[in-house]
Structure formats: C-alpha cells, structure tokens
C-alpha cells in the first residue's frame, strides 16, 4: 500500500507542477527540475550569481 500511495503522491505532484507551469510559467525566468541534486544546485547557484551581478528591472510602482 505504501508504494502505491507514493506513486499517487508523485503523480499528483507532477500534475500540479504542470498546472502551475501552464498558468504562471510566463512569470518566471528559470525553472529547475531536481533530477540530479548536484547539477540542480549548481544551476541554482549560477542563477543567484547572475542576479547578484546583473541589473534588475522592477516596475516603478514596486519601489514607490
């Protein structure tokens, strides 16, 4: 029973992730899939470094 529940939970997670990506994906600059922890962590660090050194744009209404 435990394995079936884990598979059902994983399937729900995949479906929910797909729904979120379809509905809100245009708001994000990067999407990470954790299929390899080292590689995913490296991509996250690269993205954070890019944010640190590159100028960012935000709407003026967010500032004032």
Automatic annotation (TrEMBL):
* Domain Guanylate kinase-like per the UniProt entry, residue ranges: 1-49
Q: Which domain of life is it from?
A: Eukaryota
Task: Enumerate the InterPro entries for this protein.
Answer: Guanylate_kin-like_dom, MAGUK, P-loop_NTPase
Q: What is this protein called?
A: Guanylate kinase-like domain-containing protein
* Species the sequence originates in: Chloebia gouldiae
């Amino acid at each position: 029973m435990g394995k079936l529940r884990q598979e059902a939970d994983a399937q729900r997670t995949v479906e929910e992730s797909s729904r979120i990506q379809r509905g809100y994906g245009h708001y994000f600059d990067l999407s990470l899939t954790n299929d390899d922890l080292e590689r995913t962590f490296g991509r996250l660090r690269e993205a954070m470094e890019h944010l640190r050194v590159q100028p960012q744009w935000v709407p003026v209404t967010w500032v004032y």
